[in-house]
Amino acid sequence: MAKKLKDYIKYLSNINTESLSEEERVKVTADLLIKIGFFAHERLIHLLVTITFAVLTILSLILVFISGSIATYALVILFLVLLIPYIRHYYILENGVQKLYEEYDRLR
Q1: 8 within domain boundaries
Q2: Considering only Cβ atoms within 10 Å of each terminal Cβ, which end of the chain, N or C, has fewer?
Q3: Is 12 part of a structural domain of the chain?
Q4: Which of 36, 42, 75, 48 is nearest to 59 (CA)?
Q5: Could you write out the DSSP letters of every residue in 49-74?
Q6: pLDDT tens track for 54-100
Q7: How many structural domains are present in the chain?
């Protein structure tokens, strides 16, 4: 999904708004609004997943202090290994959607 978003932003940044006819501008803007909806939905889903993993990581960290067993240490490490890529992916989606908003403003 991140690659799709980056490719689409690159495509939009290469569009010369001065050379577009009004019909082409309307078509590109309508397509952009649809893509913004898709990417914003993806961003929301990944935000929920990221928050869930962050809460689970904190809860498992609390469990480490309570029980101190090796299994809970492994659980914390597992959640951290999963949480870091989720944060990175959400960061890419958030910044990408913000760039799509800027491209929309440029087209308008």
Answers
A1: no
A2: C
A3: no
A4: 75
A5: HHHHHHHHHHHHHHHHHHH--HHHHH
A6: 999 999 999 999 998 899 999 999 999 999 999 999 999 999 999 99
A7: 1
